[in-house]
Structure formats: C-alpha cells, structure tokens
Amino acid sequence: MNRRDYDAIIIGSGPNGLAAAITMQRAGLSVLLVEGKASIGGGLRSAELTLPYFVHDICSAIHPLAAGSPFFKSLPLEQHGLEFIHPDIAAAHPFDNGTAAVLYRSMAQTSEALGEDKFAYLKLMSQLVKQWPQIRADVLGPLRFPKHPLYMASFSLKALASATSLAKRFHSKEAKGLWAGMTAHSMQPLSNATSSAIGLVLMIVGHLEGWPIPKGGSNAIANALASYFISLGGSIKSDFYVHSLSQLPTSHAILFDIGPKQLLKIAGHKFSSIYKWQLKRYRYGMGVFKIDWALNGPIPFMSMACKRAGTIHLGNTFEEIATSERMISEGKHPENPFVLLAQQSLFDPTRAPEGKQTAWAYCHVPNGSEVDMTRQIEKQVERFAPGFRELVLAKHVMNTVQMEEYNPNYVGGDINGGIIDAGQLFTRPALRLSPYKTSAKGLYICSSSTPPGGGVHGMCGYHAAKKALRDVFNKKVTDVY
Ligand SMILES: Cc1cc2nc3c(=O)[nH]c(=O)nc-3n(C[C@H](O)[C@H](O)[C@H](O)COP(=O)(O)OP(=O)(O)OC[C@H]3O[C@@H](n4cnc5c(N)ncnc54)[C@H](O)[C@@H]3O)c2cc1C
Questions:
Q1: Please, what is the angle between helix 459-473 and helix 15-26, to 10°?
Q2: Whether the CB of 210 sits within 6 Å of ligand 1
Q3: C-alpha 305 to ligand 1 mean position (Å)
Q4: Which helix (H) or strand (E) holds 42?
C-alpha cells in the first residue's frame, strides 16, 4: 500500500464512530477519529443544561442496548471508568387509577404481576429470551442467511408483525399498555408491520441485562470508549467539522458516522448515480420534542412502582398511545402525547445537588415540527404525578429543528437515523450487498442509518469497520458474538 497519513479516518464520534475507530485500531491500523464539536460522544453527551450541578443527558439516557451490546461487552470499559447503575425497576407504565404495569429484570416477576396475562406474556417472551444468545448476531447485524434459521424465523414472525396485532394476545389493560409503551419506541404507527421489533428487543434485553444508566451521565460511555481507543494508540481531533473530503489528511479508508443526507453533501461527487439516487430516497421518521428539568425533589408519582423505576412510559392505555402515534404520523400534535421519561438522579446522586433531582423526557412529534410541546408533556407528567409542576426549578427544551442543529444526524428530529419501517428495515441506507460499503472505493458509512439502526450499541460501527478491514486491508476480525 502507498504511504498515507493514517490507515483509516472516522468522521463523527458517536457510539458508532467510536466503535468503528476501536475495531480498526484493535486490528493494528493507525486511526484518526475526527469530531465536529468541541467534545466527543454524539448522542452520548451530558451537560448542565438547566442550573449549575444539575447534569442532564442531552440525548440518550437509558442503556439496555449498550448493556446488551456484544461489541461493548468485548471491551474493558469498566477499567476505563464506566459504571452502570441498575434502577430497582427497569421501566414502569402508570395508569389513571394510580396502578402501574412493570418491566422487571425478572421475566417471572414481570409476568406474575400481569395477572390474567401471565401466560400470554411468557408465551410471547420466554422462547425469545432463551434463544437470544443464538439469534442476537443476526438481529444486531446486516441481513444474511441466519446461523439458527428456526430460532430466527420464530423471532422474525413476531418482530415483523404490527404492535397492534400482537397486542391481541393480551386481555388486560396492564399488559396491553406495557406492550404499547415498549413498541412505541419504534416511532411509527403501532399498526405498521415491524412496529413490534424494537419493543421485543428492548424487553428481551431488559430481562437479560436490565435498563441501566451510566454513573455520572451518558457521556461516561463515550469517555470510556474514547479512553480505550486512545490507550490502543488511536488519535482524536475534535472541533474539526468536515465539510469536504479535501480537509482530511490522507488515508486508505474513511468511515462516516453520519447519515445519508450529509454523506451526499460531503462525498456525493464520488458516488455512482444509482447510489446517489438511492441515498436521496432515504426516508426519515418522526422527530422528538425534548425537555430536561431541574427539580426540587423526586417526582410524586401516584404509583409506588414509578417511584422505583429508571424509565417511565406515560400514555395510559394501548388505545391512547396508538392514537397518539398515529396522529403524529399524520402530521398532527396530540394533546396527550406518549411521553418517555427518565429519572436518573434518583439512582445516581452525582447528577444533582443533595435533595434535588433531574428528569429527562421527550414525546414524538411530526418530522421537522417546531411546535412547543412543553405544556402537553408537563400535563402528562402531572396526570400521573400530581404536584409535579410545583417542583420545577428550571427547564431546558429542544424542538426538532434545534435537535438537528445540535447534531445534523437527527434530520427533522429523527433520533434513529431514519425510519425503520418495512420498506427500510433491510435497506438502510440503500439496497446493496453490504449496507456499509458505499459505491466509492474506500468510503464506508457506519452510523445508525445502517443496520441494526438507532440506539447506543456501537454495532453499526463494528460491522462497518469489519467490512472495511476485509475489503481494504485484507484483515479478518474475531467475532464479538
Ligand atoms: C433525545 C434523544 C434521546 C435518545 N435516547 C436514547 C436512549 O435512551 N437510549 C439509546 O440507546 N439511544 C437513545 N438515543 C439514540 C442514540 O443517541 C443514537 O441512536 C446514537 O447516538 C447514534 O449513534 P451514531 O454513532 O450513529 O451517531 P451520533 O451519536 O449522532 O454521532 C455522530 C457524531 O458525528 C458528529 N458529526 C456529524 N457531522 C459531522 C461532520 N460533518 N464532521 C465532523 N463530525 C460530525 C456529530 O457531532 C456527532 O458527534 C436518543 C437520541 C436522542 C437525540
């Protein structure tokens, strides 16, 4: 090979950029990771957004996918400062009457609490939880012939179904509500095919790994990844926003931790016309409106379970949540939106001054919406926790436009790097033999716009780096599964 400044350059330091950088550096290459902002981390940054000493997660907060990531598990992240804290209860789902359905770490406890739906829950989940070690490589990677076709077929039959159709297995409002909250993470109408997939994965991983939060803030995950990368000899350059390939030092491969829209701007002139056409047709889904609060005390939920849970899904019944998600997909703003809320400081005292608390929440909104949903979100919290509003000391909000300004990967506020519906499940970001390889030699995409999609797990970065290592450097990486 001709001499270059670096073997590989990674653009963007989100979890996938960091994962790609580590995979390539571990294979013995010289790697430069460049980041447009002053600090690294992408969706893993934390900051004092409201008042001094109140530490808020700007984007991701709850980390079942990080805890269950086969790639992260292969790294010595504890030695680099990462400590996961497990709330008593992974997730709770309150109802108007003050009760709540609960996702416990234990599948038996979860099903037991669902009463008449105990066996329906076990029937849906127990095989999948048992078979997860055999199918996770196929679920968390690009489309290929599965290693365990029968197990994978059983997962796919459920994952490809709509949340609405699988909800028919349940009879109680508790089980249906819990299911709606989990599957609404798919950010699409619950009647859509594939809308069950993310909910199933979150529940399986919840039972196997929990839904932890990192001590100190989500940035602790990015810091641990970066620290390990540097310990391997990798280099990081922040405050280096890439507008054009001509800004970069020379290298044999470039991996982009960015979405198709930006990729076209930076490297479009290198691509074939068909690949450019494919990227232009890539679709984004709903956006989010986010609030962080500094609070004078814990949120006074009516339900005891909610007071012990890291994550709360606020939306009451299946029907209410399904209506909310459908309206958003039609470009409307529901009066009672489904709200995802996290209360990290209850379990991690480093996040707020003594006696005070933080809370993090968002609701889905139409892509590109500039509507301020503060009133609607606070109304939903107050509905299940009367007295909440009096606790608010300060708040910080971000609409979809501010979200995209903060990170150009969140196009129109879509936090998953593009919709994961039936049309795009297997073709992110384009229908190709490898989704990570662009049509230009040496250029790869490694962001959440590739399989397996959004969330903090680093698997997109790991798979993209594996592909580049094989193509460009003729190196094979040991599997992390
Ligand atoms: C509000 C919100 C809540 C979320 N909650 C959760 C959660 O609780 N759990 C979870 O698992 N996931 C959550 N997510 C999703 C998760 O954060 C993302 O899926 C994940 O961060 C995607 O990782 P990535 O590496 O693909 O890209 P990103 O994390 O988006 O990182 C991309 C990086 O590239 C940089 N960059 C972009 N363009 C350029 C350029 N031209 N030059 C140089 N640098 C550039 C950006 O500054 C950024 O640092 C949430 C996201 C948001 C926004």
A1: 40
A2: no
A3: 30
A4: none
CA-proximal residue: ligand 1, atom 49 (nearest):
42
The residue type found at 240 is F
Decide: helix, strand or coil at residue 287.
strand
Q: Tell the residue number behind the tokens 């919406």, with chain if given.
A: 369
Say yes or no: CB of residue 33 within 6 Å of ligand 1. Answer: no
pLDDT at 242: 98
In one letter, which amino acid is 222?
A: A
Atom from ligand 1 closest to the CA of residue 66: 11
Compute the distance between CA of residue 53 and CA of residue 47 in angstroms, rounded to an integer: 9
Helices and strands (DSSP H and E) totals, the chain? 17, 16
- Dist. CA 415 → ligand 1 center (Å): 7
Ligand 1 atom having least distance to the Cα of 16: 25
Q: Please write the tens of the pLDDT for every residue from 277-293.
A: 999 999 999 999 999 99
Reported confidence tier of residue 79, pLDDT bands at 50, 70, 90: very high
User: d(Cα 448, Cα 409) in Å, to the nearest integer?
Assistant: 9
* DSSP 8-state class, residue 281: T
Q: Tell me, what's the pLDDT at 398? A: 98
Q: What is the DSSP string of 112-131?
A: HTTGGGHHHHHHHHHHHHHH
What is the CA(43)–ligand 1 centre distance, in A?
3
Is any atom of ligand 1 closer than 6 Å to the C-beta of 59? Answer: yes
Residue 119 sits at φ, ψ, to 5 deg, of: -75, -30
**pTM value?**
0.97
| DSSP codes of every residue in 319-382 | HHHHHHHHHHHTT---SS--EEEE-GGGT-GGGSSTT-EEEEEEEEE-TT-----HHHHHHHHH
| Residue 215 near residue 356, CB atoms below 8 Å | no
pLDDT band at 426 (very low <50, low <70, confident <90, very high): confident
pLDDT tens track for 388-410: 999 999 999 999 999 999 999 99
Given a cut of 80, whether residue 97 has pLDDT beyond it is: yes
Q: Mind listing the pLDDT tens digit for each residue in 308-337? A: 999 999 999 999 999 999 999 999 999 999
What spacing in Å lies between the alpha carbon of 16 and ligand 1's midpoint?
8
